[in-house]
Amino acid sequence: MTPQQRIRLARRHAGLSQAALAGAIGVQRSAVSHWETNNGKHPSVTHMREVALACGVQFEWLATGRGKMSLSSDTALDSVAAADALLIEDPIELRLILAFRDAPTRARAPLVEVVEQLASLRTGRKIGSAR
């Protein structure tokens, strides 16, 4: 299997369109198309790493064809960005975080301000950006 075929297989396995993969790694859709074409360009090592992360496959398999395609459960956990990890044990806090992440970008700052005001009323201390 060629590197181009492995990139296409990884992308399809992840359920991503070329445009979605391109957006996830910060390149144009045409770049992904070139990477998947038989005589197309090869991605840089950095982009190959980003493709592996976005598609949830082993970098070594994607780059060389050696090893397994899928990530082991330990590797998958290690690949989760700290900002995206849900390391929250309190169910109420989890609801708050998920609601914030689901909110439109323009609504996030006002949501935080409302929560800070409510916390200030409850504790009697000013909470927020002026800490």
Automatic annotation (TrEMBL):
N-terminal signal peptide: none
SMART domains, A to Z: HTH_XRE
Domain HTH cro/C1-type as annotated: residue spans: 7-62
SUPFAM superfamilies in the record: lambda repressor-like DNA-binding domains
Gene3D superfamilies: lambda repressor-like DNA-binding domains
Protein name: Helix-turn-helix transcriptional regulator
Lineage, uppermost ranks: Bacteria, Pseudomonadati, Pseudomonadota, Gammaproteobacteria, Lysobacterales
